[in-house]
Amino acid sequence: MSEQDRLAIADERAFKARFGFDRPRRYRENLIRMKHTLDLTDKEIRLLKITGSLPFDARGARLAASRLMAIYGRVLIVLLGLLMAYAWLLAGAHRPSLTPTVAWKLMGVIAVLNGLGWIVHQFYIRPWDIQQRTRARRPLE
């Protein structure tokens, strides 16, 4: 265990600065142990906590990403892709040669849809992917 891990376990402020939330000492120990056992990064732990995929119970922290939320996220990304294709279609159908104004508007719409797709992936799909990746490393419960 590194010095940074020992400090996070011992000092609540150091733990909060590192992970963005606070927990009692026994939960901090459990989370640091789980981090190393499952090979999680600090960023992944923060993401799992923000998305509600890292609940704490009497035994400590556990991964609880929802398969349904991952499926929902994939459906949303498909819908965003269809909206992006529709935007391209509309831009091309109304004018054979795009004017600079229409091109800028199209790029804005594409940028917004890409940003939404990234957010959906981070909050709906990535927690499930992290849980699936770590499933092979998890000791049998």
| Structural domain tally | 2
Low-confidence stretches: none
Radius of gyration: 21 Å
Helix and strand composition category: mainly alpha
Principal-axes shape call: elongated
Order of helices and strands: HHHHEEHH
Distance between the termini: 23 Å
Strand content: under 5%
Helix segment count? Answer: 6
For the secondary structure, the number of strands is: 2
How much helical structure, as a percent, in the residues? over 70%
Arithmetic mean of pLDDT: 90
Describe the model.
The protein is mainly alpha-helical. The chain folds into two domains: 3-61, no CATH class; 67-135. It is 72% helix and 3% strand. The chain has a two-stranded antiparallel ribbon with strand order 1-2. Helix 1 (3-10) runs antiparallel to helix 3 (25-37), helix 4 packs across helix 6 (100-135) and helix 5 packs antiparallel against helix 6 (100-135).
SSE layout and pairing:
Layout: H1 3-10, H2 12-19, H3 25-37, H4 42-50, E1 56-57, E2 60-61, H5 67-94, H6 100-135
Antiparallel strand pairs: 1-2
Helix pairs in contact: 1-2, 1-3, 4-6, 5-6
Summarize the structure.
With 141 residues, this protein is an all-alpha fold.
Which tags fit this structure?
141 residues, mainly alpha, two-stranded antiparallel sheet, 72% helix, 3% strand, elongated
